Amino acid sequence: MNLQGLLDEQASLGDGTAVVAGSSTAGVRTTAVHGPVAVTADSCFRIASLTKVFTSAALVRALRDKGVPLSTPAVELLPGLTPDWRADASLTVEQVLGQVSGLRESVDAATAAALGDGDGALLEAARLVVRAGNEREPGKRWSYYNGNYFLAGSILATLSGTTYERALKANLLDHWGLVTTGFETPPASVTGRNGETELPPLDYPRTRRPSGGLWSSVRELLATGERLLADRALLNETRHPRTRFDDPMAYGLGWALGPSGQMYLNGRLPGYRAALVLIPDRDYVSVALTNTDSALPGLARLLSDLQQPVTGDDIAEAVNDFAA
After folding, report:
1. Helix H or strand E segment including 194
2. Fewer CB under 10 Å: which end of the chain, C or N?
3. Checking DSSP bridges between strand 197-198 and strand 193-194, what pairing results, if any?
4. The organism sits in which domain of life (predicted)?
5. Beta partners for 276?
């Protein structure tokens, strides 16, 4: 069945839910829409934790351009935090991006937001993260912690000599030709909903942006997947697992890893849900975005059904349950 047919079959999405979905195989794209709101492949939604894909890719590219290995201890790249560094001094950049840092998970969303929206706020959030120290030795256990990406965003900004937002734009968004993906609310934004209730515009603190602050569209997320698949060196670094056999899941750099080499993740914020799947060896990307809180199971089922003829795997539960 084609994409539009599969989308129309997802009864759990409901008639009031706006959904845009897309797939790309070897660069050939198909898109579909659902619901009463006039949306297109260019309509923009909050993509929440899909932002980590962008932060990770931009940081890996920046390190590569400067000849800095991913195995470099993070403290060496954040000299301004040295006086407050209580984390394990051996903690590397790839362990941070791979969510195997072992950092004590003490900096929550409210604590980060309270630092304000100044240019230096993200570095202060990273300072709180490393000041809390380690709960376990780096590399010993996977655990999803947004503080890892506060640290990653600070490394990207410091390497680039500018703010995280400008560094992300210069190192990745501009390079990949992404013009509507960004942190400011775009003209083509879709209003989020909780059931029948439209939600007011969501302010997303600068301190949390490396972990989940972007707006994007199906068209630009398909392009993101295509650009990543085309950069084989970046792709191979990203899809290489940093987790152990006894971890809760297999995880690379910003991506969960499926049983047949799938790369996937979801994102969730009040009023928005997003999910993205890549199959690198099949040059395949699929994505679905919605403006309704309850729609993630339907998105996960849609993307699983799309890729199942290729892999034979049912990954709906994995995509839905991922820890974003």
Report:
1. strand 193-194
2. N
3. antiparallel
4. Bacteria
5. 265, 287
Contact 96, 152 (CB under 8 A): yes
How many structural domains compose the chain?
A: 2
Q: What is the DSSP letter of 40?
A: -
For 40-52, what is the mean pLDDT? Answer: 97
Cβ count near 6 (within 10 Å): 17
| 114 touches 124 (CB < 8 A) | no
CATH code (residue 313): 3.40.710.10
The separation between CA 90 and the C-alpha centre of its own chain, rounded to angstroms, equals: 25
Question: 186 and 154 in one domain?
Answer: no
Examine the pLDDT at 324 and tell me if it is beyond 70.
no
Question: pLDDT tens digit string along 72-126?
Answer: 999 999 999 999 999 999 999 999 999 999 999 999 999 999 999 999 999 999 9
Alpha-carbon span 108 to 115, nearest angstrom: 12
**pLDDT tens, residue by residue, 145-157:** 999 999 999 999 9
Rg (CA), the chain: 19
* pLDDT, position 17: 84
- Which pLDDT score, from 0 to 100, does residue 35 have? 87
- Is there a single domain that holds both residue 159 and residue 60? yes
Same domain, 192 and 94: no
Q: At what angle do helices 218-230 and 232-239 cross, to 10 degrees?
A: 100
What is the predicted pLDDT for the residue at 1?
A: 62
- Domain of residue 190 covers 3-50+179-321
Residue 45 pLDDT > 80, yes or no? yes
pLDDT in tens, 287-297: 999 999 899 99
Residues 41, 62 within the same domain: no
Cα-based torsion angle of the residue sequence 123, 163, 179, 147 in order, rounded to the nearest 10 degrees? -10
DSSP codes, 117-169: SSTTHHHHHHHHHHHT-BSS-TTS-----THHHHHHHHHHHHHHTS-HHHHHI
